[in-house]
Amino acid sequence: MRIYKTRSIAADACKNGRVTMNGVQLKPSRTFKVGDQFNVRKGPVTYTFSVLQLTENRLGAKLVPEYMRDCTPPEQLELLELARMAGNGARDRGTGRPTKKDRREIETFMSDSYLDDIDWEEDEE
């Protein structure tokens, strides 16, 4: 129900174990009943949804909240925000791909050893 763009993408997600209910992998043909909760793993985030009503037809996006509720814990949504921030970086739109030098600088900046070089006690005072 509008979690994935197409049925074939949803079926592939089920086959690859990204859709679960109570820790059990679901098959694409699984039928739901009202009150079922299932988890969908998309990227770093595991979304949790609860079924409120059932329908036979495809729905418009505005009607989805009447049939399904997003019960994703806030910790998972924070992971999504962190992934967005990490993926964004400091590159301006339209500047193209990073050069090899840019990539090395980014990797140095993102590495743990770069953070170890900072004297944190001095900053706190």
The shape, in one word, is elongated
The CATH superfamily appears as RNA-binding S4 domain
Q: Under CATH, the topology is which?
A: Structural Genomics Hypothetical 15.5 Kd Protein In mrcA-pckA Intergenic Region, Chain A
Q: Which range best describes the helical content: under 10%, 10-25%, 25-40%, 40-55%, 55-70% or over 70%?
A: 25-40%
State the total count of DSSP E strands: 5
What is the beta-strand fraction? 15-25%
- Classified by CATH, the class is Alpha Beta
Strand order of the largest sheet: 2-1-3-4-5
- Rg computed from alpha carbons, rounded to a whole number of angstroms: 21 Å
Unreliably modeled segments: none
Mean pLDDT score, rounded?
A: 81
Order of helices and strands: HEEEEHEHHHH
Measure the end-to-end span.
53 Å
User: What is the makeup of the main sheet?
Assistant: 5 strands, antiparallel
Helix-strand makeup class: alpha+beta
Task: Give a quick precis of the structure.
This protein has 125 residues and is an alpha+beta fold.
